[in-house]
Amino acid sequence: MVTAIVFIKADVARIPEVAEQVAAIEGVSEVYSVTGGLDLIAMVRVAHHEDLATVIPEKVNRVPGVVSTETHIAFRAYSTHDLEAAFSLGQEDGV
Q1: What are the φ and ψ backbone dihedral angles of 51, each rounded to 5 degrees?
Q2: The domain spanning residue 70 has which CATH number?
């Protein structure tokens, strides 16, 4: 699996709708609104490196209201906290 972190600057008046449209794109696992110099951060997880070319420039960048993006490709994960949390949803302690 290939993970990319996409920093998104958006039209301020359209941030909520941009976030929803980006989140609906296949391959985008999460979208966060953030403070600072960015408006949104999207986590993209795809099977192959080549799939990033479809998801980011062909889909994310074309969402109306996206002003610019900056993509960072992850080399290695040092924490599995998010994966463990996702698989434990709905389970009771000790089960």
Answers
A1: -65, -25
A2: 3.30.70.920
Residues 14, 28: Cα–Cα separation, whole Å: 19
The predicted model scores a pTM of 0.82
Length of the chain, in residues: 95
DSSP string, 36-77: SS-SEEEEEEESSTTHHHHHTTTTGGGSTTEEEEEEEE----
Domain count within the chain: 1
Q: State the DSSP H helix or E strand holding residue 29, giving kind and residue range, or none if neither.
A: strand 28-33
**Confidence band (pLDDT; 50, 70, 90) for 83?**
low
Residue 51 corresponds to which tokens in the numbers above?
A: 């799939």
Is 7 part of any domain? yes
